[in-house]
Each structure stands twice: as C-alpha cells, then as structure tokens.
Amino acid sequence: MVIFRSSSAIEARVVGSLLEAHGIMSVVSSDVPQSIFPLSVDGLGEVRLSVHPDEAEEARRIIESHRTELPGGQLVRLRDEFESLQHAIGYRFRDRGLLEHAMTHTSRANEDVSGGVRDNESMEFLGDAVLGFVIADVLFREFPDFNEGQKSKTKASMVSTATLARQAAQLNLGDHMLLGRGEEKTGGRRKQALLADSYEALIAAIYLDGGMEPARAFILREFGTLIAEVQRTGVSDRDYKSALQELLQARELPLPEYRLVGSVGPDHGKLFQVEVIVRGERIGEASGRSKKEAEQEAARAALEKLTT
Q1: Catalytic center residues
Q2: Which terminus of the chain has fewer Cβ atoms in its 10 Å neighbourhood, N or C?
Q3: CA distances from 190 to 10, 198, 200 (A)
Q4: By the 8 A CB rule, do 1 and 50 touch?
C-alpha cells in the first residue's frame, strides 16, 4: 500500500530509512523510466513509498510525527540530508537527485532491492574528465613558461587520488557518502579511494546540473590554494620520496621500503595501495592511479607524520 508520495527521491529514501529504523520495510517505485540516473525530482516524476497494508497506519503515524508544522498549517519537508554539503560547496542543486547519485557508492546500490538506485561510477568518469580539462586549461593560461613535462607533472599532482581525497575531507564529503553496510563497517567514509571517487562524481553532478561554468567555478575555488602555491614557488611537483629519504638519513634511520599491499577497481581505473615501512613500522600509506603515484603520496603522508 502506498503511504507516501514525493517528487524527490532523496526525501523518499529519507522516509524509507526512518521507517526501517522503526522496523517497517518499504519499497520505492516511480513512473520514471529507469536510466543511469536516480529517480528524478522537482516535478519530473512522482516517487512512491509502499508498505504492507497491515503496517500502513503505523507508517503514516511515524511519518507525521517527524514533520514540522509551521504557523498557517504549512508542513515542511523532512530533513534534507545534503543541505550542509550544498552550503559547503557553495552550489545549490536544482535537481538534488544528481547529488544523491554522486554520493551513492556501488555497495549501497547493490543492497537496494527496488532497482531504482544507481551507483556513481559513471559520474566519476565524467567528473575526472571535467576536472582534468579545467586544470589543464588553468595551467595552459597561468603557466606559459612551463614546458609540457612540467604541466603534465603539475596536473598529475593536482588530480592525484591523495589530493582529491584531501579536498573531499575538507568538505566533510565522507559524512554524506551513501554506503552499503559492509563498506560502512570497514571505514569506507575515511578511505582515500572512495573519497576521491565521490569528489569526482560531485564535480560531474555540478556540471550536469548547472553546466560548465558552475563546475569550473567550483574547481577554481577548491584548487585556488594549490594553484597559488605553484605560482608562488614556481615548483610544478615535489619528489616526496627523495625528501623522505633525506630526512631519514639526517636522523640516521634506515632507508624506507615501499610495499604494494593491494589494488582495487576495474582494469581501466585501478587504484594501487602502497605503504611505506621504516624499521618494520608503517609510517605512511596512500592510494594512487599508478604505483609511482601511490609511492609518492605514501612518502608525503610519512613526511607529514614525521614532521608534525
């Protein structure tokens, strides 16, 4: 029996989670054709929430008890779980379903029995392309004296998994990721790879919702400090492995050992996980799109640990 209707997939899923917390299972349905995107919002289609007829009355009572009534009898919608994120990124979505899609990890999509949830892997792909284009454009315009090699190294450093994960952490993006139970239990909200992927998907969501200019503006705000640092120092990239080796030698410690501990993702987008060991102790770990990138970022993490 249908007990809740909305034009927002986000709101429907919030209500579904509320009911589940009270032991009532629900099913989401919509007239919107299935696609790679989540159920549409803002008048593009009605989303319905159904429960067993025996639980309908209790479900309606729970929903009403969590609404807020304003003077004049107006009921406001249930909590928008992405409101603080929109504030943090400085962009308000017209279609908040795109933001929900960008935050949905494959582990969450695999657990959804309705078939209406799609993961963010396609959006990661698009976001990576948009980010790469904007950064390349900035380097071309702002650093005309850099040769091709310097531009390539600077771009690679700026769009590395570790850099994107740090940018995501500054936005508290991990708090907003929609994860499956297994990924939640294993600390998915703090994993570099998941944070970087969600960050790229977020860029894609902004691009799809508002076009290139809002996406470009977001990227320039986010990467302004990194770009300014390159402008100030003229350094296109830093060899963190050499810097770590020099620091260890100065402290009369043995040279570091880099170990590949695993890899995740499909062949076309594999992420390598590397840890750096000194005297049997792990002092840094990181992920990267290549073993070389992962080693550099692990060395960076070790340097930060040893110098703070």
Answers
A1: 128, 200
A2: C
A3: 23, 12, 16
A4: yes
Which stretch of 59-63, 155-159, 260-264 has the lowest confidence by average pLDDT?
59-63
Question: If you average pLDDT over residues 277-306, what whole number do you get?
Answer: 90
Does the pTM exceed 0.85? no
**What single letter denotes the amino acid at residue 295?**
E
Q: Are the beta carbons of 122 and 203 closer than 8 angstroms?
A: no
Amino acid in position 90:
G
Cα–Cα nearest to 49, from 1, 116, 4: 4
Mean pLDDT is highest, among 94-98, 103-107, 241-245, for 103-107
Task: Outline where DSSP puts E strands in 140-293.
Answer: 257-264, 271-278, 281-288
> Considering only CA atoms, which of 193, 183, 16, 201 is closest in space to residue 103?
201
| Both tokens assigned to 109 | 């999509």
Cα torsion at 173, 82, 29, 195 (round to 10°)?
Answer: -10
191-211: average pLDDT: 94
> What is the residue whose two structure tokens read 């919002």?
41
